[in-house]
């Protein structure tokens, strides 16, 4: 995703202590962070809670944000680490049916349902977790290769390999579907 001058300016002002600027960042990224966390947890309530925790951590650590990096990659890194800590610390449970019907007006939930209908992201979920995460960050969130690498804690070459293998695996699945028809 291309850097936005407005976002960089908001991040700079928030780093200087401007609460209104931080609130602007929350308003801009809240739905995207929620959707990313929902992709990781597959649980709406956990994603909502983790979204709040992510922004709380970002607020508490905004002074650590370096202006030479992209704010969105920094924020998504916080979200990923928060989700991984939550997953590690919680017992593995699975919802039988996600509670999506109660929030039809929420665009992120609507987008999730549309993706599930198209089957692309549903098929991608059967990939290895790192391949899925790389595909989601690159194509679902629109991050650049370097931003995806930063969020994943990997180098750009590793991300390119994961993307290539993930796309190849999806192409094989598509071919199998065609043969089954």
Structure, explained:
This protein is mainly α and 181 residues long. The chain has two domains: 1-118, RNA polymerase sigma factor, region 2, helix turn helix motif (Rna Polymerase Sigma Factor, Chain: A), CATH 1.10.1740.10; 119-181, Winged helix-like DNA-binding domain superfamily/Winged helix DNA-binding domain (Arc Repressor Mutant, subunit A, Orthogonal Bundle), CATH 1.10.10. It has nine helices and no strands. The chain has helices spanning 5-15, 19-41, 44-60, 71-89, 107-118, 120-124, 129-140, 145-152, 156-180. Helix 2 packs across helix 4 and helix 7 (129-140) crosses helix 9 (156-180). The longest helix is centred in the last third of the chain and has 25 residues, at 156-180. 28% of the residues are buried.
Write the layout of secondary structure elements.
Layout (H helix, E strand, L loop, with lengths): L4 H11 L3 H23 L2 H17 L10 H19 L17 H12 L1 H5 L4 H12 L4 H8 L3 H25 L1
Helix pairs in contact: 1-2, 2-3, 2-4, 2-5, 3-4, 4-8, 7-8, 7-9, 8-9
Summary tags:
181 residues; mainly alpha; Rna Polymerase Sigma Factor, Chain: A; Arc Repressor Mutant, subunit A; 2 domains; 9 helices
